[in-house]
Design goal:
The chain has 191 residues and is mostly beta strands. It is built from no helices and 17 strands. The strands form six sheets. A four-stranded antiparallel sheet has the order 3-4-7-8, with no helix packed on it. A four-stranded antiparallel sheet has the order 9-10-13-14, with no helix packed on it. Strand 7 (83-87) and strand 8 (96-99) form a beta hairpin. The chain is globular, with a radius of gyration of 16 Å. The N and C termini lie far apart (33 Å).
């Protein structure tokens, strides 16, 4: 991850491992690519390199999501309001798709997690310019954004910081766990 020497532990799933890094590069989560063909370089039809983007993986749909982030330009970093989806399923062509719906707006430093109950991805918090975005957005299977009515607002301790998130539990008993850059772990109950 980044400038650190964090790597997947010995015995991590093969095919090859995917490492999701925290924004500051100090934490890593290891997973496996669900196919055995190795990595393929995609030179076109993919998101531009960016800072402070948001990434989430839907195991149920074998889709990797990338939202927002800041793209470096000659005039300074430009925050994006765009969603990219990479199909990583075994039978898929492993190609990026740019989804045009931009309801949450331009964001940096948000968190994203798969919700096993709602068959949706949750986009949590982030920054819009210098202002904190306290919103939680849901992305459904048709890649349509909405504001979920079944999730309470973010707790004050999670507002104004870059977040990382994971949803743990089952479809009927789940918790949204948020991680902050200061290594503070916040459990935000969903059900």
């Amino acid at each position: 991850c980044g400038a650190t020497t964090q790597m997947c532990p010995t015995g991590a799933p093969a095919n090859p491992p995917v490492v999701a890094c925290s924004g500051d590069g100090t934490q890593a989560v290891c997973s496996a690519v669900p196919y055995d063909t190795g990595f393929v370089e995609r030179s076109s039809g993919r998101p531009q390199p960016r800072l402070h983007w948001t990434t989430g993986l839907s195991d149920a749909h074998q889709l990797l999501y990338v939202y927002g982030g800041a793209v470096p330009t000659a005039a300074g970093d430009k925050t994006r309001a765009e969603l990219w989806v990479l199909d990583v399923g075994a039978a898929s062509p492993q190609k990026w798709t740019h989804v045009r719906d931009q309801s949450p707006g331009a964001l940096e430093g948000a968190a994203m997690a798969a919700d096993p109950a709602g068959k949706r991805m949750l986009l949590i918090g982030g920054r819009k310019g210098s202002a904190f975005a306290p919103d939680i957005w849901a992305l459904d299977e048709q890649h349509t954004w909405s504001t979920p009515s079944d999730i309470p607002p973010l707790p004050p301790a999670a507002q104004g910081v870059d977040l990382r998130a994971v949803i743990v539990g089952s479809a009927t008993n789940r918790r949204l766990v948020l991680f902050t850059p200061t290594s503070k772990t916040l459990v935000h109950w969903v059900t």
